[in-house]
Design brief:
With about 55 residues, this protein is α+β, with helices and mostly antiparallel strands. It contains two helices and two strands. Strands 1-2 form a two-stranded antiparallel ribbon. The longest helix is centred in the C-terminal third of the chain and has 17 residues.
Length: about 55
């Protein structure tokens, strides 16, 4: 992720779910959410929840 995307509240996270599969979580904060949770922090949280759900 480059600084310009981060400054616009955008973040992409890729995580391997198996030897062959990868998931991508893309977060874009709305302009009204400036100063809120960092987009990458949100993306990491979503990815972690998906991985936890897949393990069950």
């Amino acid at each position: 992720m480059d600084g310009s995307r981060a400054s616009r509240g955008e973040c992409d996270i890729a995580a391997g779910t198996s030897d062959r599969d990868t998931m991508v979580v893309s977060i874009t904060r709305s302009p009204g959410r400036k100063g809120g949770t960092d987009a990458c922090e949100s993306a990491r949280g979503v990815a972690a929840q998906i991985l936890a759900d897949l393990r069950h």
